[in-house]
Amino acid sequence: MNSQSPPPVVADRWQELMDDAEATEAEYNEEGYRTLLIRPGDVTPLTNVPFGLDVLAPGDEFEALESLVEGATFDTSHVYRNEEGGARFLIVVVEGTDADGEDVAVVVPAFLDLAESDSLEERATDAGVMYTHVRPLSDDSRVTFTHEDPGLFF
User: Fold this and answer.
1) Which of 50, 74, 77, 114 has a CA 20 to 30 Å removed from the CA of 97?
2) Residue 111 and residue 4: Cα distance in Å, rounded?
3) Residue 151, burial from CB neighbour count under 10 angstroms (0-12, 13-18, 19+)
4) What global pTM score does this model have?
């Protein structure tokens, strides 16, 4: 994990980001998607192997995520972003279809400290892909979403 604290603006804006993520989830529900909102306990940029965003999820939400993604195919990513006070705020949405043909979406609010984003941007741009890794506190499992356009994050 990153030993540095996130920019102070993250704490100030976190509830607003969560409210926006909940509104995004509600919109997907209204459109007929089966959705899951992840409420991160921490977000860390990873620049080695693996690279991407490492998102710590509560245990019950991670179990629900594992169940939701089982047999599902995710083929579309959207990233809604805003920058303020040295941080980039993100709402990552991955859309797909489950094994029964039902539309599913996972909504993940996150942030990047702009001081740490350059190396991640370089890594993702060089690879031509970006990843969002969601894991429980036990760190014994992980669900990884692949985003074919790293520019969505940067």
Assistant:
1) 50
2) 14
3) exposed
4) 0.93
